[in-house]
Amino acid sequence: MPRFFIDTEPSEYITVTGGDARHIGYSLRMKKGDSITFCRMGTDYFCTITEMSEDTVTCRIDRAEPSKCEPSVSLTLYQAFPKQDKFEQIIQKTVELGAARIVPFLSKRCVSRPSEKDFAKKLERFRKISEEAAKQSGRGIIPEVAPLMTFEQALEDMKSCELRLICYENGGKRLSELGLPEYKSIGVMIGSEGGFDRSEAERAADSGAVPVWLGERILRCETCPVAVSAVIMNLTGNM
Amino acid sequence: MPRFFIDTEPSEYITVTGGDARHIGYSLRMKKGDSITFCRMGTDYFCTITEMSEDTVTCRIDRAEPSKCEPSVSLTLYQAFPKQDKFEQIIQKTVELGAARIVPFLSKRCVSRPSEKDFAKKLERFRKISEEAAKQSGRGIIPEVAPLMTFEQALEDMKSCELRLICYENGGKRLSELGLPEYKSIGVMIGSEGGFDRSEAERAADSGAVPVWLGERILRCETCPVAVSAVIMNLTGNM
Q1: Which among A96, A175, A217 has CB closest to B139?
Q2: Contacts for A232 with CB less than 8 Å, ≥ 6 apart
Q3: DSSP assignment, residue B160?
């Protein structure tokens, strides 16, 4: 069933205008009486279309339920910014897999180093990719893509997570050894093309992040967050 | 350390010619006395370069060891053939993650349906992608990309695996419930863009494949094999 996201809490009816309304009427060719789902902050609103005009669609809310597609764990991905197309792949795949938030940051070995201003211009596109992936995979939220941070800002931001991890190819614990189901929120720091510098890995460990090791095979920077998200969702009973 | 694959079992020395030799001399700028690793069928040969000419590199084998990068489980991915660029992504990522073999086949909902002959032309390119991913991730083998099969041929081929699975969005067991560490070889069937038709899922189950469910969120066909490979490697102690 088609899913759309809304911004404000609805009461009895949901009225959609603009691009989404045209998408419902023209692309999906939906009509009065059809079923449609709207989502807002983890709640699914199951609706019936009651009125349609050229650019407005009105829907009656039949029932509202917590979205069963949202994982029980809140996973934030702190991703050292790779080349743009790789970052876009990472957003798409990790949103499908259940990430709650994606925070890009600059580490020493990042090759692509956009200024804050240049990054801000791209943020709208990144957020669109998150929204599309959320719709397509049936999520109950649109995971936020945060503005670009420094390494220190990312470490500080990660303090809001109950469990903090950093993927480090030179060794650490396995994901299975961490008792993941105990935690409600997990933050994982993942390197860009060249991985992390030793001083960064040490700094993250000092700030409370547990080094995690993903085995003998070297993963590309865009494979690592997808693999880590899948394994965390599996180990926490969400896949 | 740079890794190269060789075709025949070496004795005391390894001699490399052609593209690999030029890659060693020109691109990597390696020289006499440098260390280099060769792999063949799960064995790593740790070598020292002893002679170099324009297009030949000779290396002394210092020691040979079973490749520690090879997972303890042999994972074969039976992938319903998606659009070509997605299949290439799937090869690259699942080889990094440890798949032993990738078998493409045609299912009812495959959109891209190359003839056997057209597929055969692309096979060399697919195998090159597997080789590159194997080198880059440090594998001890080059995982085979098999010729295109029919659904029935794929089911028959999968009988060589101790445990047989089919990912099916309409329900099944979770990967964590299957006692994966008991098995030495696992085959997983994964759908293309539209997933599997119900009759195909039933046919696979009849032939002994356990339906597997990956949770509430709908994964793209190129995300699913990457997620499944990562979770299987984790659950079998290989990640």
Answers
A1: A217
A2: A73, A75, A175, A180, A186, A188
A3: T
Torsion, CA A187, CA A188, CA A193, CA A199, rounded to 10: 90
Length of chain B measured in residues: 239
Rounded to an integer, what is the distance from CA B125 to the centroid of its chain?
14
The pTM score is 0.92
Dihedral, CA of residue B74, residue B80, residue B83 and residue B89, to nearest 10: -10
- Report residue B181 as tokens: 């560490």
Q: How many CA atoms, within 13 angstroms, populate the side-chain half-sphere of residue B106?
A: 12
Question: In chain B, which residue's Cα lies nearest the Cα of A176?
Answer: B234
CA of B211 vs chain A CAs: smallest distance (Å): 14
Q: What would the pLDDT profile of B156-178 be if each residue is shown by its tens digit?
A: 999 999 999 999 988 899 999 99
Where are the strands (E) in A53-100, listed by range? 56-66, 74-80
How far is the alpha carbon of B116 from chain A, nearest alpha carbon, in Å?
30
Q: Which residue has the tokens 């030495």?
A: B184
B69-101, pLDDT tens digit by residue?
A: 899 999 999 999 999 999 999 999 999 999 999
